[in-house]
Amino acid sequence: MKLWASLLIVGIAAAAPAWGQAAAGDEAAIKLPAPRLDGAVSLEKAIQGRRSVRGYSGEALTLAEAAQLLWAAYGITDPRPDGPAFIRGGLRAAPSAGGLYPLEVYLVAGKVTGLAAGIYRYVSEKHELARIETGDRRDALCLAALGQAWIREAPASLVFGAVFARTTKKYGERGRERYVWMDAGFAGENVYLQARALGLGCCIAGAFLDDKVKQAVNMAGDEVPVCILGVGRRR
After folding, report:
1. Less Cβ around it within 10 Å: N or C end of the chain?
2. Yes or no: domain 42-232 corresponds to CATH 3.40.109.10
3. Residue-range domain boundaries for the chain
């Protein structure tokens, strides 16, 4: 009996994917390290030190750092598996009007240790990445952002897309004109503060060609690009 139990445990351990690797049977699902819930930098110090940083050293981010930034943006902090379908798994790190969560968060990975360069969508319900496309797309994202060079130089960027219908079905045009943009602001500030707490630099961009950003990250047809957040180690 003990032998069978030992073999079962070894088999489960062997089957479990390592961080940054696809789960068995699903090559598009990338497991992320669990978020840290405590750190060395206080919230007050992160607020005091928050600045927009456009100069990066070129050093790679770690997968744990990328995972922490994604969680801070839109990770689930209060799981509600039996909650209404529209919350899609639980309440998130950033507030949202009506708990409707209209944003989709993409990771444009250029230099992230343990993760192949490519485009990924953050699946907050599972704290995973869904691989959309392989290959370094930072040049394409930079061109879509009117040639802002720091977007090319950042080892990774988060791109927010908005599905306005999630919010407008309840709030009408006020959702489109106000609430979705508020949601994006909350999530974006979380990324800024988390980056500062990790000792990283971050900058947000809103100057870009919408259709080109959609093409660069393979954004779904019903999504609208909202912002780009470049992140990296300060020069």
Report:
1. N
2. yes
3. 42-232
